[in-house]
Amino acid sequence: MTQHVAIIGAGIGGLAAALALLRRGIDVDVYEQATDLKEVGAGIQTTPNGSRVLLELGLGDELQRHATFSKGKDTYLWNTGQKRPFMPLGEQSVDSYGAPYVTFHRADLHGMLLRAVLQAKPGAVHLGRQLDALSQDGHGVRMRFVDGTEATAPLMVGADGIHSRVRQILLGPDKPEFTGCMAWRGLIPAEAIQGAIDLVGGSMWLGPTAHIVTYPVRQGKLLNFIGMVDQDNWLIESWNAAGTTEECLADFAGWHPHVQLMVRNITIPYKWALMVRAPLERWTEGRITLLGDACHSTLPFLSQGANMALEDGLILARCLQAYGDDPGHALRNYESLRRPRTANITRSSAEQVRRVHNPELADPAGAQRYIEREWGQQQVEERYRWIYGYDARTVELESAA
Ligand SMILES: Cc1cc2nc3c(=O)[nH]c(=O)nc-3n(C[C@H](O)[C@H](O)[C@H](O)COP(=O)(O)OP(=O)(O)OC[C@H]3O[C@@H](n4cnc5c(N)ncnc54)[C@H](O)[C@@H]3O)c2cc1C
């Protein structure tokens, strides 16, 4: 059986894979470019398919401690603020799917995965190790880092995120296409908006050329804000490119006063160009495979980036446990299980933009028709069931990849 796996990237997917492998008695070393893992990012949603993986990894108590359990989600019309429920959460999510729909500050989700990995293997995560080059032969993979150090392992997983160096080395340069849409992201302190804005539920504000998603994190102490806008003058895809409050306000001019209030109170509004990548036809070569955003980055419209990475980590570990005597087969098997689902999700997420930015929303009669047609609780439940119902713990592992 495979005894040792090297993972490039200590993000959500890399750490989930590390933990799933360690739990199965397979040794791991994780190489991360950051020199310290400080608090970065904003909100992240863990839908039942992702929470199920966290529970399987033994993180149920940590989830209870760090996650925020919303009561449900409502749509709001961009100009009138008219509200209507579209997704009950809380107990109903557990009843329907056997796992909760929760929200996290990314740093809290990341922190709980990191602590669990270090508890299972102290010293598993090597910081300041930015992968530069790699090579493989019939026995293993040799990795060279920017600091001049090297490491070897029988197998290697590239979990190095959206701008993956491993993907670049295996498959050549990336060709993302700009969607014509950018996102504002940020956190709002609860005390600045208390009384006016719902801090126990999630919201989706729908408009003709933009929409906003909000949800509480840190038990309602912060509200996460993502505002997606049709516009073509911002082309940088980055988690830490800051914009200004004035620019963000200009993008939501004419929207309801509660939207203006939220925007004015975002601590730092970050800008992110929404890029789309065609699903990869393959992402495994010999003893190397990819995982998470490195092989299936997605637009945020279905909130599945972290959830797919969590699913990947567990399925990869299950394949290596089941077919560890033939690691090449195990990796191909993992890829063949994950490719169709992740391609469906990334495609569906790209199609969702037409559902959330819709010209019918410009006038009140059109808006009413549109909300009833697209955002009734039953339509939403039918649209999302295949995503939330997926169970990475039990999905059948095919033996012929
Ligand atoms: C700093 C940061 C902040 C984020 N904030 C949010 C957020 O607020 N909301 C949200 O929904 N998503 C956020 N994400 C993205 C989200 O975590 C991912 O979309 C999703 O969880 C998939 O996880 P992943 O493990 O594939 O990628 P990521 O979680 O992005 O992890 C990739 C990891 O690989 C490391 N890495 C990259 N290149 C190399 C290299 N050459 N050598 C070694 N290590 C490397 C990165 O530093 C990172 O730690 C953020 C990602 C990052 C890196």
Automatic annotation (TrEMBL):
A single Pfam family it belongs to is FAD_binding_3
Q: Does the keyword Lipoprotein apply?
A: no
Keywords annotated in UniProt: FAD, Flavoprotein, Monooxygenase, Oxidoreductase
* Record flagged with keyword Cell inner membrane: no
FAD-binding domain span: 4-348
Output the Gene Ontology terms for molecular function: FAD binding; monooxygenase activity
Q: Which domain of life is it from?
A: Bacteria
Q: Which cofactor does it need?
A: FAD
What this protein is called in its record is Salicylate hydroxylase
The record lists the organism as Pigmentiphaga kullae
